[in-house]
């Protein structure tokens, strides 16, 4: 939440426009629309009057960070295993010579 725009902090669960959601999340309008269709963001209204719940945006951000952190940790583990695997292969090749 430390990088969340200060203009939205301390506000109740109000609706933000798609343009505001784009600024907050850093995604394009079309990505935001697809996220609404997939149910990742909760919106109400129709067409140009559509609003997205601010709580939905904060929930998405916290959830996506958790997923990103898990993916980063998994990548690190793969690198560790790969290094061990390469070292073991090298030792095996030396033994077979």
Description:
The chain has three helices and three strands. It has 97 residues and is mainly alpha-helical. The chain has a single domain, classed as Orthogonal Bundle (Multidrug-efflux Transporter Regulator, Chain: A, Domain 2), CATH 1.10.1660. It has a three-stranded antiparallel beta sheet with strand order 1-3-2. β2 (43-44) and β3 (51-53) form a beta hairpin. The chain is rod-shaped, with a radius of gyration of 22 Å.
Class by alpha and beta content: mainly alpha
Could you give the distance between the termini?
A: 57 Å
* H/E series: EHHEEH
What overall geometry do the principal axes of the alpha carbons give? rod-shaped
Brief summary:
The protein is mainly α. It has helices spanning 18-25, 29-38, 54-96, and strands at residues 15-16, 43-44, 51-53.
Give me some keywords for this one.
three-stranded antiparallel β-sheet; 97 residues; Multidrug-efflux Transporter Regulator, Chain: A, Domain 2; 3 helices; mainly alpha; 7% strand; single chain; rod-shaped; 3 strands
Detail the topology: elements first, then pairings:
Layout: E1 15-16, H1 18-25, H2 29-38, E2 43-44, E3 51-53, H3 54-96
